[in-house]
Amino acid sequence: MSIGDFKKEWEFRRLLRKLSRQRVALVLQPGNVWVIEKAVEDNAETDSALKTFYMRGWVEPIQNAVPRGKLTADGKLPQGNIFNQTGPFYRLTDSG
Predict the structure, then answer these.
(1) What angle is formed at CA 31 by the lines to CA 78 and CA 93, rounded to 5 degrees?
(2) pLDDT in tens, 32-44
(3) Cβ-contact 63, 52 below 8 angstroms
(4) How large is the greatest C-alpha to C-alpha distance in the chain, in angstroms?
(5) Please, are residues 39 and 15 in contact by the beta-carbon 8 Å criterion?
């Protein structure tokens, strides 16, 4: 294995630890929308890592089409539609 491979695996372990620290802060009604504290960042790198974890059996998607949105840069709710995309969220398996 090259040094780049070791670094990538170390980043995977770090992301798994972050995933294990996520928690549901509250559930918004109507719609049963979960607000996740300490959520992992939603970007292309995280997406590919989560798919690798799924392939390895470390995580599994709980539900697809979950509404997603982001806070503004100053940590406030955006104006208008809060949710601008959908996607799955993941849970750790016994192997993860």
Answers:
(1) 95
(2) 778 888 988 888 8
(3) no
(4) 50
(5) no
Q: Tell me the C-alpha to C-alpha distance, in Å, between residue 93 and each of 6, 19, 58, 80.
A: 23, 11, 5, 36
Both tokens assigned to 6: 């070791």
- How many beta carbons lie within 10 A of that of residue 51, not counting itself? 13
* Local confidence band at 65 (pLDDT 50, 70, 90 cut-offs): low
Pair of tokens at residue 12: 């995977």
Q: Is the dihedral of CA 57, 8, 43, 25 positive or negative?
A: positive
Burial 64-88 (b: 16+ CB within 10 A, else e): eebebeeeeeeeeeeeeeeeeeeeb
Amino acid at 90: Y
Stated pTM of the model: 0.72
Domain range summary for the chain, segments of one domain joined by + = 3-92
> Residue 64 corresponds to which tokens in the numbers above?
């697809």
Instruction: Please check whether residue 89 is in contact with residue 36, taking contact to mean a CB–CB distance below 8 angstroms.
Output: yes
